[in-house]
């Protein structure tokens, strides 16, 4: 079953990347890092790779939810990433397990050299709007409920009860794998989530100021029990977990989502937002800044699209797909 995530997010701390969590690069069969300019077909390249496999996981771009930052093929232990800024990535075992795909080799550079000053102006202006978005998100986070890490007897009892219910008092011979990702993000299209795509099984709602702490400890217990767990972080507080996804059990524990037939664990009182109208206004200003950045990004693409030889991109895509299918 295909899944959709954000592997990075726009946050009060700036651009927050979790790309290193997507795949164990030392155990992968192949990882490809695409290097290339805006509008050169990186996202389309990755969509074509993903479409060839039923179990593909898609990692959407927080600067444009319709674009991809990466695609993972779990059955082949292979992945393709956009390795350009702001999510710069490079081979770890170059040639042995991973490699760079250079779209720069497919560019007519003379066309871009003529537009160099304009491209520089657009890129510089775009960076200002991203900084503004991060400042608005930082201001909004100061008004949002503050997570607590003070565990009382109710916290301990409910944690023990939950662990007992799922047999988590038993430590497996091999610990599960942890991934830190995002199920939602602040984007130019608004606050977008992939709840419907990810949370298709049983859901347990966790409420209270200590919810993030509870989810962290419960997630670690599932890992010790041998389960692979996705720790889905809050884009407003990326140091806190909003959801746990235990894929093998089709089980979700969430502090921010309620599905059909949701159970609930009530930990403690839930504090409210200090000023909800102001909070909402700051979030909208952040999203508007991201929209402005996307508009400028589109103008950069207008310079690159005529300069790229898409036939060469298609040829490379076919070659990479054939390699992945061979594993």
Query: Structural class from helices and strands?
Result: alpha/beta
Largest β-sheet summary: 6 strands, mixed
Give the CA-based shape: globular
Helix and strand run: EEEEHEEEEHHHEEEHEHEEEEHH
Intertermini distance: 19 Å
Strand order of the main beta sheet, please?
A: 1-5-6-7-4-8
Mean pLDDT: 95
Helical fraction equals 25-40%
Task: Give the beta-strand count.
Answer: 16
Q: Extract low-pLDDT stretches.
A: none
Calculate Rg over CA atoms. 21 Å
Determine the number of helices (DSSP H or I, runs of at least 4 residues).
Answer: 8
Into which percentage range does the β-strand content fall? 15-25%
What would your notes on this structure say?
It is a single chain. The protein has 327 residues and is α/β, with parallel strands linked by helices. The chain contains eight helices and 16 strands. A hairpin with a 4-residue loop joins strand 6 and strand 7. The chain is globular and about 70 Å long.
Offer a concise description of the structure.
This protein has 327 residues and is an alpha/beta fold. It is built from 8 helices and 16 strands.
